[in-house]
Design brief:
Helices cover 18% and strands 32% of the residues.
Length: 468
């Protein structure tokens, strides 16, 4: 037998052994074949929240934009909107789709939440795609598995020995150590099996949330407070002061509208709460992200180019500017809002716009394409404060919903309401048209919070908690 024959026999036997090993491994741990990878993988359903993008979802769920676009038959992956339901491939390691949204509360940290969830902080960080888990914001939304319901957290202002802490909170020492494996330190949060633990907030505050956090510019932030007694409050931010609205004796709410051209970054917010007996001022931090805004070039037909002349619409602009900052103390709206009609979005709020030249403005509302005559309904209850033809906005309607929330509807073909009329959520107010500065039949839906233009699509999803 020659050397070449010996080498061939060795290579042949090695190839056979490797093939058998491959088949054995494939039987126990099946490898995806080309046919499987090209098929449609098993998927779950996810509802988009304000600020969600396909690249962010792909990163969060361990997939890629191309897979998400293929699963959902998306021609343009950029054209997604809050409330849209997307099919997502299931994670092989963590069933995050069964987890629930959780908003960070005052003094809560990531280590505490991971212990309450029964997971290591590393696993929780990876599942939420967080780069800096130690920098969570009040009101920031993360996803968690069901938390231990029989424990709560208290702040240990004066750390004691572990056995003394167990005696202090009247729990068995072994259970205290199991819930709190790390050494105590001043200000540390401890888990105790007592759902009625006292609040760490200064009186008269009992609970405080700021949501959502982080928040894309051009959106609304809700500051929600619970107090131990009837109280008043105000919020100072961006050189503005907004009063809080009361719902019941001890529930207070403040709405903060963030301009769509606001620079991303961290902003200081000052909350002042007072009663006849107590007064407290708290500094808060608001994290504002860039958000996603498109660029649009609008080419008007020659017959309507004259409408761009600002002198023609000055009276109209003054009229709208006087009505949109209304702060009616009575809340008429239901939450979340409804869509004013069922139609596709053709232009999103905040898109940078050019009318035949430089990008010098932004789109102050959301456009829906539909046929002339399609009914338009009120997305929430309110009082009609304007219903008339305008030069640029065409046939227009304004609704005052209360608590500083005002909505507008432009380019209508007809108006079915009158000023002073109270409309209910879902009640018809007009019909889609092509009047004013418009290039085709559509509805322009606008929303203001305390006079600041914000995205109306955020309000059709439950971004905050309001009483019914």
């Amino acid at each position: 037998m020659t050397v070449g024959q010996l080498q061939f026999g060795y290579i042949f036997r090695l190839t056979v052994c490797l093939s058998l090993l491959w088949l054995a491994l494939d039987a126990v741990f099946p490898f995806p074949t080309r046919a499987q990878s090209e098929g449609t993988p098993e998927a779950a359903v996810y509802t988009l929240h304000p600020g969600d993008t396909l690249p962010a979802l792909a990163l969060r769920f361990g997939t890629d934009v191309q897979t998400l676009a293929r699963l959902n038959d998306l021609r343009d992956p950029r054209q997604v909107y809050p409330g849209q339901r997307l099919r997502l491939p299931l994670s092989a390691s963590l069933d995050v789709m069964s987890w629930e949204s959780y908003r960070i509360g005052m003094a809560e940290d990531f280590l505490l939440l991971s212990r309450r969830a029964g997971l290591s902080w590393e696993v929780l960080t990876q599942a939420n795609r967080l780069l800096l888990p130690g920098h969570l914001m009040i009101g920031q939304e993360i996803h968690l598995p069901p938390l231990l319901s029989d424990v709560s957290a208290v702040s240990d202002a004066f750390p004691l020995a572990r056995i003394a802490s167990a005696i202090r909170y009247t729990i068995p020492y072994w259970r205290f150590v199991r819930l709190n494996p790390l050494p105590d330190y001043t200000g540390a949060l401890l888990l105790i099996p007592d759902a009625s633990s006292p609040s760490d907030l200064p009186p008269p505050l009992v609970a405080l949330t700021v949501m959502p956090q982080p928040v894309p510019r051009g959106n609304t932030v809700a500051v929600v407070l619970e107090t131990s007694a009837s109280a008043s409050c105000e919020v100072t931010y961006l050189d503005r002061v907004e009063v809080c609205y009361a719902q019941g004796d001890t529930s207070l709410f403040a709405l903060l509208g963030l301009p769509p051209l606001l620079d991303p970054g961290r902003y200081e917010v000052t909350l002042r709460v007072w009663t006849d007996a107590d007064s407290v001022t708290l500094p808060l931090t608001l994290s504002v992200t860039e958000g996603r805004y498109d660029f649009e070039r609008i080419d008007l037909p020659p017959s309507r180019e004259s409408l761009l002349d600002p002198t023609l619409s000055q009276v109209e602009r003054d009229k709208i500017a006087a009505l949109r900052p209304l702060r009616s103390p009575e809340r008429l709206w239901e939450f979340p809002f409804q869509f004013p009609l069922s139609a596709s979005v053709t232009s999103y709020f905040g898109s940078r716009r050019s009318y035949g030249g430089a990008f010098s403005s932004f789109h102050a509302g959301t456009d829906f394409r539909s046929e002339t005559g399609t009914p338009v309904s009120a997305p929430a209850s309110g009082t009609i404060i304007l219903a008339e033809p305008l030069v640029v906005r065409g046939n227009a309607i304004l609704i005052d919903h209360g608590w500083g929330v005002v909505s507008g509807y432009w380019h209508l073909s007809r108006i079915d309401v009158v000023v002073g009329q109270v409309v209910a959520q879902g009640e018809r107010i007009g019909a889609v048209g092509n009047t004013g500065l418009s290039t085709g039949p559509h509805l322009h839906w606008e929303l203001w919070v305390n006079g600041v233009a914000v995205s109306p699509l955020q309000w059709v999803t439950p971004f905050a908690t309001f009483p019914e």
